[in-house]
Amino acid sequence: MTRVWKWNRPVTVREVLEDLQQERSIAYTTVMTVLDNLHQKGWVRREAEGRAYRYEAVSTRAAYAAALMNDAWSQSDNAAAALVAFFGMMSEEQRRALRDAVRMVEGTSGSGAAESAELSTRSPAEVTPEESAEVKGEVKGEVLGEAPGEVGGEVPDTAAETGDENPGSARGGRGR
Fold first, then answer.
1. Helix, strand, coil in percent for the chain, rounding step 5
2. What is the full per-residue pLDDT of the chain (176 aa) written as tens digits?
3. How far apart are the C-alpha atoms of 136 and 129, rounded to whole Å?
4. 73 vs 83: CA distance, rounded Å
């Protein structure tokens, strides 16, 4: 997926293979199997071009990351505490990006702008769980979009990253 997202255009197995071979030895059939598995799981769409397929990401990397964060957050038994802990791990640059994102969401939703803007300028330690829960209620429905398929883990770049000799068995594939 990393290669498909990187190019942001339809790609062939051969193009992905040649790019990966700059870093390590990998077989054409391995790349073909991984792209086929990603297609079957709904991560990429493909279109025939001659005797080959061109593969294109169904979702952006940002939407996938947002879906992962939303999934992890929704599984917490205390969402406000999870958010406060998460914000506490962020660098100052990440906090600025978060404040910018909250402003963008508020610009389209228009609800709670004053309260959320005030919270976004405070450090995570200064925000109470109750205040975080209020912001959570506003932002949860505004996720940029969910990636198809499973959201619970990283999408491997190649079968080699799954640690499995048989790429068809990685993450619920057909196997042999």
1. 60, 5, 30
2. 999 999 889 999 999 999 999 999 999 999 999 999 999 999 899 999 999 999 999 999 999 888 888 888 889 899 889 888 988 999 999 999 999 989 998 886 544 444 444 444 444 444 454 444 444 443 333 333 333 443 344 444 444 443 333 333 334 444 43
3. 10
4. 8
Give the global pTM: 0.50
Question: CA–CA separation, 109 vs 88, rounded Å?
Answer: 26
Find residue 127's DSSP bridge partners. none
- In sequence order, the β-bridge partners of residue 48 are 53
8 A C-beta contact, residue 65 and residue 2 = no
Sign for the CA dihedral angle at 120, 121, 123, 125 comes to negative
Judge whether 13 and 31 are in contact, CB under 8 Å.
yes
